[in-house]
Amino acid sequence: MVLLQLDPFLNELTSMFERSTEKRSVWVTLKRSSLKSKSQRNKLVTAGEAIEYRCLIRATDGKKTISTSVGQKDHQRFQASYATILKAHMTALKKRERKDKKKPAEADKREGSSKRSKKS
Amino acid sequence: MVYITEWDKFVEQSIELFRADPDSTRYVMKYRHCDGKLVLKVTDNRQCLKYKTDQAQEAKKMEKLNNMFFALMARGPDVDLSEVTGKEQMDAQPSKKGRGRKQ
């Protein structure tokens, strides 16, 4: 597992999505972590120092695993770029179809819910 | 493992799970392009919450959840999520007020 800087990670994630279009899945895991070993953490705790946590991000396509981490300062920039990549590559999901049918369905729901509220 | 069918429930329960044990809870997104499927999972190794979809519309909701988890994990579990999710609205409101006062 390679711990990458933010931009190399995003580039690698992009190519991971591109490589796995025909087969395979892509997993992205977010986890809160101090990136320290247990003994290192225990030392900090006994010394009364605060443990700095970061958000660890790992991605895999089943063959290769990459990772990076974001802290308080850079997570907003990262999450914006991450969202852009997801939007650009999650193109196999179904778009909403039959707009005409959707509207009456929603109207029915509203009527249904208003009836329920009247009863209650 | 049972999939949760209601999005709001999934969000609510997964954030609850994270806040109960921030250090061992992880959030996993799995995307399978060839089947057009998206699965979200939140687990602390004892309890497992899953949500699956094939709708593009749901990806937008997922983006919001991503942002919530980024904030929770990078800033800490006590972060105010209403600030994270409602940021755009909060930014827009003061500007409207500003225009009103000028007139």
Automatic annotation (TrEMBL), chain A:
<dbReference type="InterPro" id="IPR009018">
    <property type="entry name" value="Signal_recog_particle_SRP9/14"/>
</dbReference>
<dbReference type="Pfam" id="PF02290">
    <property type="entry name" value="SRP14"/>
</dbReference>
<keyword id="KW-0687">Ribonucleoprotein</keyword>
<dbReference type="GO" id="GO:0005786">
    <property type="term" value="C:signal recognition particle, endoplasmic reticulum targeting"/>
</dbReference>
<dbReference type="GO" id="GO:0006614">
    <property type="term" value="P:SRP-dependent cotranslational protein targeting to membrane"/>
</dbReference>
<dbReference type="InterPro" id="IPR003210">
    <property type="entry name" value="Signal_recog_particle_SRP14"/>
</dbReference>
<keyword id="KW-0963">Cytoplasm</keyword>
<comment type="similarity">
    <text>Belongs to the SRP14 family.</text>
</comment>
<dbReference type="GO" id="GO:0008312">
    <property type="term" value="F:7S RNA binding"/>
</dbReference>
<dbReference type="GO" id="GO:0030942">
    <property type="term" value="F:endoplasmic reticulum signal peptide binding"/>
</dbReference>
<comment type="function">
    <text>Component of the signal recognition particle (SRP) complex, a ribonucleoprotein complex that mediates the cotranslational targeting of secretory and membrane proteins to the endoplasmic reticulum (ER). SRP9 together with SRP14 and the Alu portion of the SRP RNA, constitutes the elongation arrest domain of SRP. The complex of SRP9 and SRP14 is required for SRP RNA binding.</text>
</comment>
<feature type="region of interest" description="Disordered">
    <location>
        <begin position="92"/>
        <end position="120"/>
    </location>
</feature>
<protein>
    <recommendedName>
        <fullName>Signal recognition particle 14 kDa protein</fullName>
    </recommendedName>
</protein>
<feature type="compositionally biased region" description="Basic and acidic residues">
    <location>
        <begin position="103"/>
        <end position="114"/>
    </location>
</feature>
<comment type="subunit">
    <text>Heterodimer with SRP9; binds RNA as heterodimer. Component of a signal recognition particle (SRP) complex that consists of a 7SL RNA molecule of 300 nucleotides and six protein subunits: SRP72, SRP68, SRP54, SRP19, SRP14 and SRP9.</text>
</comment>
<feature type="compositionally biased region" description="Basic residues">
    <location>
        <begin position="92"/>
        <end position="102"/>
    </location>
</feature>
<keyword id="KW-0733">Signal recognition particle</keyword>
<keyword id="KW-0694">RNA-binding</keyword>
From TrEMBL, chain B:
<dbReference type="GO" id="GO:0005829">
    <property type="term" value="C:cytosol"/>
</dbReference>
<keyword id="KW-0687">Ribonucleoprotein</keyword>
<dbReference type="GO" id="GO:0005786">
    <property type="term" value="C:signal recognition particle, endoplasmic reticulum targeting"/>
</dbReference>
<dbReference type="InterPro" id="IPR008832">
    <property type="entry name" value="SRP9"/>
</dbReference>
<dbReference type="GO" id="GO:0008312">
    <property type="term" value="F:7S RNA binding"/>
</dbReference>
<comment type="similarity">
    <text>Belongs to the SRP9 family.</text>
</comment>
<protein>
    <recommendedName>
        <fullName>Signal recognition particle 9 kDa protein</fullName>
    </recommendedName>
</protein>
<feature type="domain" description="SRP9">
    <location>
        <begin position="5"/>
        <end position="67"/>
    </location>
</feature>
<feature type="region of interest" description="Disordered">
    <location>
        <begin position="82"/>
        <end position="103"/>
    </location>
</feature>
<dbReference type="InterPro" id="IPR009018">
    <property type="entry name" value="Signal_recog_particle_SRP9/14"/>
</dbReference>
<dbReference type="InterPro" id="IPR039432">
    <property type="entry name" value="SRP9_dom"/>
</dbReference>
<keyword id="KW-0733">Signal recognition particle</keyword>
<dbReference type="InterPro" id="IPR039914">
    <property type="entry name" value="SRP9-like"/>
</dbReference>
<dbReference type="GO" id="GO:0006614">
    <property type="term" value="P:SRP-dependent cotranslational protein targeting to membrane"/>
</dbReference>
<comment type="function">
    <text>Component of the signal recognition particle (SRP) complex, a ribonucleoprotein complex that mediates the cotranslational targeting of secretory and membrane proteins to the endoplasmic reticulum (ER). SRP9 together with SRP14 and the Alu portion of the SRP RNA, constitutes the elongation arrest domain of SRP. The complex of SRP9 and SRP14 is required for SRP RNA binding.</text>
</comment>
<dbReference type="Pfam" id="PF05486">
    <property type="entry name" value="SRP9-21"/>
</dbReference>
<keyword id="KW-0963">Cytoplasm</keyword>
<keyword id="KW-0694">RNA-binding</keyword>
<dbReference type="GO" id="GO:0045900">
    <property type="term" value="P:negative regulation of translational elongation"/>
</dbReference>
